[in-house]
Specification:
globular; binds nicotinamide-adenine-dinucleotide; two-stranded parallel sheet
């Protein structure tokens, strides 16, 4: 099949592109190389694919509707996997318009392009942040979402609403995946687990927010990619009259202290931490109820935290020459 993957050079997108190519599909990867972290890292993420004739990397912004329509039509795209977006509560509160562009305008632009080009299938990577900080864990898809308490949550909830609207009005078959925290190779250097591993390996001190005892749901990247691919398979076999929403997570709660303990077990070294107050109240505890994805998509995360962390540590060691 022919896929368009937006944000395909980023952390999750690059793995999705790789799996689609491995499964024999054609992939157009559209990425604008935003400034959240260096372009060179994203180019490196898709480097392994660049010689493959079924893979094409296009530099461009999803907000450019004419370019999208041209790509959708000329590349005969059948399914869009919309991953381009931004996350980060503090960054979003500081630069709300960037987040409105990346999360809302980009989503409406791809939907409008699909409407024009008559492309009827989309998988969208949303986030567990739509549940806000006051929903009761484990989070379930049918929960009525709280009013957003940050720009990030507001932008992701709005994107979901537009997807639901285009599904209802323009018959675009839509799957929304509410993804919980993901880790693994290609994760951005600024992300939490990367920073903790690097601090551990280089004997640097690192801030531990609160007491490090807020439980969250961490999933290894290959399990999330499984969920995305299973969603595409489902979309290709079913007419989706009402937009389907699935949680993708591990279904388990782990704290930063649990993660540090695992890292230390693997490296055999202690991590030097110092306490800092939690910077935002949106650092919500919570984990996914994955029953719906398990039942309908046959999603079944396979990689235990210890194995995922071992792979991640090996990758960070090679990246940082440690
Ligand atoms: N990584 C996680 O733990 C996690 C968890 C839940 C949800 N998500 C969501 O999944 C998506 C991808 O996350 P990621 O970790 O891979 O982030 P990432 O920053 O590594 O990847 C996002 C990619 O999208 C591109 N992009 C952004 N705006 C664009 C635009 N307008 N046009 C074209 N390309 C654009 C960026 O250049 C980047 O390569 C984000 O929307 C994020 O909110 C991520």
């Amino acid at each position: 099949m022919n896929y368009l993957v937006t944000g395909g050079a980023g952390f999750i997108g690059s793995h999705v592109c790789e799996r689609l190519i491995k499964n024999g599909h054609k992939v157009v990867c559209l990425d604008n190389f935003d400034d959240l972290y260096p372009k060179s890292i994203k180019i490196e993420n898709v480097n392994v694919l660049k010689e493959n004739p079924r893979f094409q990397l296009i530099t461009g912004d999803v907000c450019d509707i004419d370019n999208n329509i041209d790509l959708l039509e000329s590349k005969k795209i059948e399914t869009v996997i919309h991953i381009a977006g931004r996350s980060g509560t503090q960054k979003a509160n500081k630069n709300p318009l960037d987040f409105i562009n990346s999360n809302i305008k980009a989503t409406v632009s791809i939907l409008e392009s699909m409407k024009e080009a008559e492309i009827k299938k989309i998988v969208y990577l949303s986030t567990s942040s739509v549940y806000g900080h006051s929903s009761k864990a484990p989070f379930e898809e049918h929960t009525i979402l709280e009013n957003p308490d940050s720009v990030h949550t507001a932008s992701k909830q709005s994107a979901e609403k537009f997807l639901e609207m285009y599904n209802q009005i323009h018959d675009i078959n839509t799957i929304i995946l509410r993804v919980f925290s993901v880790f693994g190779p290609n994760q951005p250097p600024e992300s939490g687990i990367y920073q903790f591993v690097k601090a551990n390996l280089t004997n640097q001190s690192i801030a531990l927010y609160g007491e490090g005892n807020i439980g969250r749901d961490y999933t290894y990247i290959s399990d999330i990619v499984d969920g995305v691919i299973l969603s595409c398979d489902y979309l290709n076999k079913n007419i989706i009259k009402k937009c389907e929403i699935f949680n993708l997570g591990s279904g388990q709660s782990d704290t930063i202290v649990d993660i540090l303990t695992e890292i230390e077990k693997i490296t055999g070294k202690k991590t030097n931490t110092f306490a800092k107050p939690t910077p935002n109240k949106n650092t919500a505890p919570g984990f996914a109820n994955i029953d719906k994805a398990s039942k309908i998509l046959k999603y079944n995360p396979q990689v235990p935290l210890s194995v995922g962390l071992k792979n991640t540590i090996e990758w960070i060691k090679s990246k940082e020459n440690l």
